[in-house]
Amino acid sequence: MNPSLPLCVDLDGTLLATDCLWESFVQGLKQNPFIAFLVPFWLLRGKAYLKNRLARGTDFDVNSLPENPRFIKWLASQVANERDIYLVSASDQALVSAVADEFGIFKEAIGSSEGLNLRGKYKADYLVDRFGEGGFDYAGNDFPDLRIWEKSHASILVHPVPRLLKRVPDANRRVIVEDRPSIPVAFIKAMRPHQWMKNLLIFVPLLTAHVWQNVDAWVSSVLAFFSFSLCASAVYLINDLADLLSDRLHNTKRNRPFASGSLPLYYGLIGAPFLFAFGFLIMIFANLSGLSVLGVYMVATCLYSFWLKQVAGVDIVVLAGLYTLRLVLGGFVVEVVISDWLLAFSMFFFLSLAMVKRFSELYNIKEENRERVAGRAYLASDLNLMAMLGSCSGYLSVLVLALYVSSEHVTNLYRDPKWILLVCPVMLIWVTRLWLETHRGRMDEDPILFAIKDGFSYGTIVVMLIITLLASPI
Q1: At what angle are helices 290-306 and 215-242 packed, to 10 degrees?
Q2: CATH code, 183-470
């Protein structure tokens, strides 16, 4: 490798851990969903024209774009040697220039124009015309870069896939591997399978209606569980794409697969519809009546991701409603009527959990001396109000449970229903402890994750099951 030769650096996947074309498309969709109908017509006029239109119509912060830290560290060593470095990318010129200005180390920024897509052969031809064959070193990461490495003096491969590595000769080659998970691992992480614990609520109607002896009911519930879980994972993919900017400004959410660049954005755009389709297909075998609930869930979560989460008050009620929707689905698939008591309890209880989530976010930004949560409508000054409303909601859920125990509905299900009253103090202890932990800053921003890791929560469940057995279910 000759340090006297100019070093030409690719942008997408090389300097950055993301692709500006997909970034532009995703941000454009968030700002105007109808852009999806325009993209095919723009593409008919060439990929360079498409990139130009997306770049012109999209406003995203280049400061927040994820980088490849190991490559940038190596690049800094080249800067220290006073080497001429050029940023040469197939992305639109406006975006390439903006990124180059942010880094401040490039002698020149060269990108695609409206009539020229500077990729593969066209980039190779440009660099040979500019510097001569073998007169430059090139850093890239993808198969179209093979054409350029054939003409360059040295090849720098940034986090290449094994198939690409095999096609580049060992001579005068440098490989820089970033510290990030494989694509399959990152995709599974983006699906958040740990969140499937929430969907165990689907089994609650089966248990509370005392139809657990029915094998068909269990089969329907299990199928509904996996159906809903796949649809929920699709929603997480959509939500993470919609929240790219705010996640990248967050202390922990910046490590999510899309925000960090460990998972290409198009995996979410393709994966979400696939998971939805597969989820709906499974629901057909569970119970056709469940399809309507899945449809409501899909519409509600998309509205939440793109709009409702930014409306104070509405967002937490919608979150609580989405939990309750799981109970409704469980009732639909086993064909039992869910009592009004259970619905009222779940609404207040899950409203309390939703406020725990918001309180934790506000607590963290207050610790960071920030005023508001990015992408949310709450201020740090709302912290105490959120604690008051959330704890009140949790206690109201226990009050509903106490009133339920004295109802005729319970006497028809248990031989000794008064035992169920003991569930109330157990729930009061759990809710009190939940809010104490939250108020002391020990709560994960996701209360479900906290409960999964919390031994006390498991003990609470065991105690309540024992009390239920003592009540002698009929």
Answers
A1: 20
A2: 1.10.600
CATH 3.40.50.1000 occupies which residues in the chain?
Answer: 7-176
Question: Who wins on pLDDT, 131 or 53?
Answer: 131
Question: Which two tokens mark 464?
Answer: 């309540």
Buried b (16+ CB within 10 A) or exposed e, 210-235: ebeeeeebeebbebbbbbbbbbbbbb
Annotate 392-405 with b (16+ C-beta within 10 A) or e (fewer). Answer: ebbbbbbebbeebb
Spatial separation of the C-alpha atoms in residues 134 and 449, rounded to whole Å: 54
Question: Taking a C-beta distance cutoff of 8 angstroms, is the pair 435, 442 a contact?
Answer: no
CATH architecture assigned to 7-176 = 3-Layer(aba) Sandwich (3.40)
Task: Please write the tens of the pLDDT for every residue from 370-424.
Answer: 777 666 778 888 888 889 999 999 999 999 988 887 777 777 777 777 888 888 9
Query: In this structure, which amino acid lies at residue 181?
Result: P
Strands of 44-141 (E only): list them: 85-92, 108-112, 137-140
- Residue ranges, comma separated, of all CATH 1.10.600 domains in the chain are 183-470
Q: Given the DSSP bridges, would you call strands 7-9 and 173-176 parallel, antiparallel or unpaired? A: unpaired
pLDDT category at 465 given cuts 50, 70, 90 is confident
159: left (phi over 0), alpha (psi -120 to 50) or beta: left
